[in-house]
Design goal:
The complex is a heterodimer of chains A (261) and B (258). By secondary structure, chain A is an all-alpha fold. Chain A has two domains: 38 residues; 206 residues, MetI-like (MetI-like fold, Orthogonal Bundle). Chain A is built from ten helices and no strands. In chain A, α8 runs antiparallel to α10. The mean pLDDT of chain A is 90. Chain B is α/β, with parallel strands linked by helices and 258 residues long. Chain B folds into two domains: 175 residues, P-loop containing nucleotide triphosphate hydrolases (Rossmann fold), CATH 3.40.50.300; 68 residues, no CATH class. In chain B, 34% of the residues lie in helices and 26% in strands. In chain B, the strands form two sheets. A six-stranded mixed β-sheet of chain B has the order 5-6-7-3-8-9, with helices on both faces. In chain B, strands 2-1-4 form a three-stranded antiparallel β-sheet, covered by helices on one side. The chains are: A mainly alpha (261), B alpha/beta (258). Chains A and B meet through α7 and α8 of A and α2, β5 and α5 of B. The structure holds adenosine-5'-diphosphate and magnesium ion (MG). The site of adenosine-5'-diphosphate (ADP) has 12 residues of chain B, from β1, β2 and α1.
């Protein structure tokens, strides 16, 4: 119980200042729409956006849940493949020569280009969105993991060599833990990207489920209130996931956060 | 075959190839060391001390010549955990605490015929003043403590040869002297063969049975002197005439090696 309390206190400390600055922005925004005469069909008042979310809470919650779930699964899948391939490459350089060009090709192609294809091939439902999300996550995780596995201090490998550690002993005792900080810095970039991937997948599925689909429908109806609501919710989902990630990171890589202990 | 010979090198040569430039670092080194002997290698920086010690530890491949350790290759000494290598940088694993950092040396490359004696582990921890900090992480302890952990990690599995490459060079003067005499004590207690490099001349004299001077110019030893001082030794010996004579002689040799 004490632990949960600690985490909450941590979060409140972390969130209080951003919350205050958001409150200030919303206040200025609200007042300028009201008194300076910004056109309401272009920019709604924040109170309208928030009211809209609360009035349609069930609707937004269900669609957010889809987006959240697809992003998370895509993130896990893409990360798992990235980490696994990095380990395979470490053990066999030929795999790098064979698979890396394909991975680079996938990376340099904008998702906008293949997202519709995946939707056409795999149809509606959550599967294509998970795949799109996984694809955008995969590459940065692969590259960072590979760096982390390889960039081990020479004096450390010398010590392990001096007792003839095997390759798998090196992998589990030094290379993988050494890669943790690298992997987490990839996660901090790919977690929001996973949400973008899932949302784009939903967008191309048209009036299906998820916030991306709501954005698709609302953009045709020029429904700025819904567009703003979706943006706000997506930002909140990203924030929550990033905070969870930071928390896990601090628990796992204690040695990188010396000042906190 | 002399059973007391622990290390024998014959016409040992080492070249490094950098950008298709061939650089000769060690040339025709013939060197022997007896079992239990404490040998220091001194020389200017860049003279090849690290290269020589890594060759002996089997961490580098030699270009020509041969090295025998216990009548076998350095690789086989490594595989049998017969040697310990300690570098200037303690190179601890940041994700392990002190105990785990030491214990990992026992877990890696486990030998069925190797007996690990809890009493000896405790003894070493006590001797090297690590008692009570077993649960600390490397980032929580001083540089001197880290180097003590590195030393403990390389003696815990009972190697009969310790190769120490400037293990004290990164430390402040006071800590350096403390650990110097701890190493001396370890040698007197467990009597492993020690090959120790340093650029501190007094240190080499105080610790060693023999001091070798490595020259970057001739790429070989230019001096091999036996230090005839009684053991056990203590720091009070540092001010003796005998020690300062050795130091002066070695200083002159190194000074003229340009
Ligand atoms: N991996 C390497 N590649 C190329 N040259 C090297 C390498 N390691 C050492 N050298 C060269 O070998 C010489 C001896 O280096 P080293 O053994 O580190 O000397 P010391 O330990 O006495 O300072 C230096 O000139 C250095 O530049
Ligand atoms: Mg050196």
């Amino acid at each position: 119980m004490l632990k949960i309390k600690d985490i909450l206190v941590d979060w409140i400390n972390l969130l209080i200042y951003p919350f205050l600055s958001f409150l200030l922005i919303f206040l200025i925004w609200e007042l300028s729409v009201n008194y300076i005469g910004v056109q309401k069909h272009l920019i709604p008042r924040p109170s309208e956006v928030v009211t809209n979310i609360f009035l349609n809470f069930g609707h937004f919650f269900l669609n957010s849940f889809y987006t959240f779930f697809e992003s998370l699964l895509g993130f896990i899948l893409g990360s798992a493949f990235g980490i696994l391939l990095a380990i395979l490459i470490l053990f066999n350089k030929n795999i790098e020569k064979t698979l890396l060009p394909a991975a680079v090709l996938l990376k340099v192609t904008p998702i906008i280009a293949y997202a519709p294809l995946l939707v056409i091939w795999f149809g509606f439902g959550i599967f294509p969105k998970i795949i799109i999300s996984a694809v955008v996550v995969f590459f940065p995780v692969l590259i960072n993991t590979l760096n982390g596995l390889q960039l081990v201090d020479k004096d450390i490998t010398d010590f392990f060599d001096s007792i003839s550690a095997s390759r798998s002993e090196m992998l589990f005792k030094i290379r993988i833990p050494n890669a943790f900080p690298y992997i987490f810095s990839a996660f901090r970039i790919t977690l929001p990207m996973a949400i973008v991937g899932a949302t784009i997948g939903e967008y191309f599925s048209g009036g299906d489920k998820g916030l991306g689909s709501l954005i698709f429908v609302a953009s045709y109806g020029l429904d700025v209130v819904t567009l703003f609501s979706c943006a706000l919710i997506l930002a909140i989902i990203s924030m929550i996931l990033i905070l969870c990630l930071n928390h896990i990171e601090k628990k796992i890589i204690k040695w990188q956060f010396q000042d906190h202990s | 075959m002399n059973l007391d010979l622990h290390i024998i090198t014959k016409e040992l040569c080492k070249n490094f190839t950098l950008n298709s430039n061939n650089q000769n670092v060690l040339k025709n080194i013939n060197f022997q060391s007896n079992r239990g002997e404490f040998v220091s290698v001194i020389g200017r920086s860049g003279s090849g001390k690290t290269t020589l010690l890594k060759l002996l530890a089997g961490l580098l491949n030699l270009s020509s010549g041969s090295i025998l350790i216990n009548n076998n290759t350095p690789e086989s000494a490594r595989n049998n955990k017969e040697l310990g290598f300690i570098s200037q940088n303690p190179a601890l694993l940041p994700w392990y605490n002190v105990f785990e950092n030491i214990n990992v040396a026992l877990k890696i490359n486990r030998k069925t015929n190797q007996i690990y004696d809890d009493e000896k582990i405790k003894d070493i921890l006590r001797f090297i003043k690590l008692e009570g900090i077993e649960n600390y992480y490397p980032y929580q302890i001083s540089g001197g403590m880290k180097q003590r952990v590195a030393i403990a990690r390389s003696i815990i599995y009972n190697p009969d040869l310790l190769i120490m490459d400037e293990p004290l060079s990164a430390l402040d003067e006071i800590t350096r002297e403390e650990i110097r005499y701890e190493i001396l004590g370890l040698h007197e207690k467990y009597n492993p063969t020690i090959i120790f490099s340093t650029h501190n001349i007094l240190e080499s004299v105080m610790l060693s049975d023999r001091v070798l001077v490595l020259s970057g110019k001739s790429k070989n030893f230019i001096e091999d002197i036996t230090i005839d001082l009684p053991r056990p030794r203590s720091s009070s010996l540092e001010d003796s005439l005998k020690v300062s004579n050795y130091v002066n002689r070695l200083k002159k040799t190194i000074y003229h090696d340009r």
